[in-house]
Amino acid sequence: MHENLARLDFIKNKIKEIVDKKQLKTAPEIIAISKTFPLEKIIPLLDRGHIHFGENKIQEAELKWNGVANKYKEIKLHMVGKLQSNKAKKAVEVFDYIHSLDNEKLAVKLQESEKKVNKKIKYFIQVNVANEKQKSGILLSDLESFYSFCTKNLSLDIVGLMCFPPFNSNPEKYFEIIKISASKLNLKHISMGMSNDYEIALFGGSTFLRLGSAIFGSRKLPN
Ligand SMILES: *Cc1c(COP(=O)(O)O)cnc(C)c1O
After folding, report:
1. In 118, 137, 167, 202, which residue has its Cα 20 to 30 A from 180's Cα atom?
2. Residue 214 Cα: closest atom of ligand 1
3. Architecture of domain 3-216
4. Pocket test for ligand 1, best of 210, 213, 216, 218 (most atoms within 8 A of CB)
5. 167 CA distance to ligand 1 centroid (A)?
6. What Cα–Cα distance (Å) separates residue 134 from each residue in 72, 128, 143?
């Protein structure tokens, strides 16, 4: 078996164990974050029928995935990286989900792009859960009004919240805050948990784990 498949199976088994043991209601989807890895490393997962894949750069995603969707019709592509509003149209063309919706200008551009491209996609609002200066994301205090702007003014299909907990701190309480915030807004999905904290995110109610190195091995480039 290909090593990436073996790692994916290992993770799935672990998730199943936790879900059974803790009697969680639902198991999260796994988004295989394939940034920096060439298609040949991804093919084994595609051939196995894995559905969700994620990238963090528009151009890389476009080059890599162009044509793949014709062969693997079920796949869903997720944009998890910072998105500049001048690339909104491209993003709508390439992706099925965007996890990094984090400002009004971008939201407006995405709505315009959906109209131009005649395609609706799904969004996660990225939340700056610990109020970190250097990080993008909507502050908790602005979340309700931003959500309302996106849904009422723009009719964007917001399906959930996304976060990165602060580096080097216990993520548990941040995951909890996101879960509570999502439930207040009646949002079904939570995009949280990466290779180093996905088990904690699972307990915290994640519905989409974003896993890169745990599946594909370590990345050479620091992104
Ligand atoms: C790279 C990346 C991931 C995956 O990171 P790993 O630690 O390799 O699992 C998840 N989410 C985002 C937004 C990323 O950029």
Report:
1. 167
2. 9
3. Alpha-Beta Barrel (3.20)
4. 210
5. 13
6. 38, 10, 18
